[in-house]
Design a protein that fits this description.
single chain, mainly beta, Beta-galactosidase, Chain A, domain 5, 2 helices, 30 strands
Length: 366
């Protein structure tokens, strides 16, 4: 996709957007990287391949900017990678049991790519496609809108789904993500961002010393295939109680069946206060050593906290090895397996409706 010259170096005061070639995909499509820079010098590098955040810099308590997300080094790495580093996930973020669901009297079969489950949109989810890109700058800061039309039947899903996701790197040091979608046939939709955070700025270091609080009283327990049982389980007196900030490593190896099933944390927390779609606080993550702090706000009713249990020594940017638990994800979402769980908030989008959610990641120092 050619980018008009007038948008390749937009700028407003110090805020700016640049774009560079990122290479050609195996299918012959050109990919680009867009670099957003806000007025404080914070940057976000986003490629239109998979809507992927490949770098996000933030200052530590001494003003030193470092990349705080895990990423691969090349486009090819993202094409063959299986860890969804920084990716935009769809049509359905998280797992669908057995790769099937019933909707309006029909059974739909999806690819199974996670044991017996369908995960993150299937074999070729939204993380493996090239999106149409439109950079922009507003008074809030620089941004990038990505558009993709998912054909009826793609990865087994019904309906033609038209998706628009806009990233804004605000001058208040926020990464704001706005998701919108419409469909011509009823279909499940659950979009999210799969960024792996490591606030230390050292991707070769684990995140067990990070401190985390999650503003939720319950979570959705899972079976041995990591599919929700349908229950909402109180976090009281369990490794899942993050209502008060504590180290991530404190419970990640706990003698607890849920922790054993996932090899750490890979669970959905429930935010009843977001049931009406209002923006609310979800989590606060901090790294005591660097002083960096991240706050998560969203309109979503759930958030998957994942401690990178299956990174499996992936080779990242500049040859750094991403071992298990070298990054963690705070994925705002609807609940896993919602198409098969009638008691969960619905993820079914119907013609005439607009799917619309927003998530804001805010960065500052302690």
């Amino acid at each position: 996709m050619a980018i008009p010259p007038e948008v390749t170096a937009l700028h407003q005061e110090k805020a700016q957007i640049g774009s560079t070639d990122y290479g050609t995909t195996a299918s012959g499509e050109a990919a680009l990287v867009f670099t957003l820079t806000n007025t404080n010098g914070m940057t976000a590098e986003i490629t239109n391949y998979g809507g992927t955040i490949i770098s996000l810099t933030a200052p530590d308590s001494e003003g030193k900017f470092e990349n705080i997300v895990l990423g691969y080094e090349t486009l090819v790495d993202y094409e063959v990678g299986t860890s969804y580093l920084g990716a935009l996930i769809g049509r359905f973020g998280n797992r669908i049991a057995g790769g099937s669901f019933d909707l309006d009297g029909e059974t739909y079969t999806l690819p199974v790519n996670d044991g017996p489950n369908h995960l993150h949109g299937g074999d070729r989810g939204f993380d493996k496609v090239v999106w149409e890109a439109e950079p922009f700058i507003t008074d809030d800061g620089p941004g990038l809108c990505l558009k993709y039309t998912s054909a009826d039947g793609e990865e087994g899903y019904p309906g033609t789904l038209t998706v628009k996701v806009c990233y804004t790197l605000t001058n208040d040091n926020e990464l704001r993500i706005d998701y919108k979608a419409v469909t011509d046939k009823a279909t499940p939709v659950n979009l999210t961002s799969h960024g792996y955070f490591n606030l230390s700025g050292n991707p070769g270091q684990d995140i067990l010393g990070h401190h985390l609080s999650i503003a939720a009283d319950s979570f959705t327990p899972v079976d041995s295939n990591l599919i929700p049982t349908g229950e909402l389980c109180p976090v009281d007196d369990s490794p899942f109680d993050f209502r008060f900030i504590r180290p991530v490593g404190e419970g990640v190896n706990a003698d607890n069946e849920q922790i054993t099933f996932a090899g750490g944390y890979d669970h959905n927390w429930v935010f009843d206060q977001h049931a009406d779609g209002q923006m609310g606080h979800m989590a606060t993550l901090s790294d005591p050593e660097s002083g960096r702090v991240l706050e998560v706000h969203s309109t979503e009713p759930g958030m998957q906290f994942y401690t990178g249990n299956f990174l499996g020594a992936a080779v990242g940017d500049k040859g750094v090895i991403h071992e298990n638990k070298h990054g963690l994800c705070l994925e705002t979402q609807h609940f896993p397996d919602s198409p098969n769980q009638s008691s969960f908030p619905s993820t079914i989008l119907r013609p005439g409706e607009v799917y619309s959610t927003q998530t804001v990641y805010s960065f500052f120092t302690a």
